[in-house]
Amino acid sequence: MDFRIRQYLSKAQEKRDAVFVRKAYDLIRAPAPAASDGRSLSDLCVLCAEQSLQLGCWEITQDCLMMYLEGKPPVNQFLCRAYLCQGQLISSRSINTVEDLDKAVMYYLKAIEIAKDKSRYHFLVFNASLLYLQSVRRFLRPGQRRLHGFFSHAGPRGSRGGSGS
């Protein structure tokens, strides 16, 4: 079953077609046979959430993330990716206020907290910083260049940002 889910997610990415995401999602939601590895299936929830987010299937994204996070996932790259996906979901749908932005940033920070201590996950710190920049872009004002405290979590040296024009 895991193989079929991966095939559908691959086709969804290749063809940019939400029909394949729906098929993968339906297989994930189906009662799991005894042969399926529970951890592998939970990781597939994150992959499905990422792909459905890319295709604008926000309900599937939200449900996959809920299934994953309710299962008490291990602290690994998939948990980081789930947090990044949750932050993207918030920012793609509803960032109209600073409070909405704070919710999205909170998920990016959670991902960074996990990823910063493991060198093999440093790419996730980079991804989180890009997602942060995309999220705050609409709040930036011309002539103001200040780094948010967000970047103090990104590395051992912290933020060097000040103001500049």
- Strand content is under 5%
The radius of gyration over CA amounts to 17 Å
The oligomeric state is single chain
- Helix count, DSSP H or I runs of 4 or more residues: 7
Q: Give the % helix.
A: 55-70%
Termini Cα gap: 55 Å
Unreliable spans are 158-165
What does the overall shape look like? globular
Mean pLDDT: 85
Summarize the structure in short.
The chain has two domains: about 1-75, no CATH class; about 75-155.
Explain how this protein is built.
With about 160 residues, the protein is mainly alpha-helical. It has helices at about 1-15, 20-30, 40-55, 60-70, 75-95, 100-115, 120-135. The chain has seven helices and no strands. The model is unreliable at about 160-165 (pLDDT under 50). The longest helix has 18 residues, at about 75-95. The protein has two domains: about 1-75, no CATH class; about 75-155.
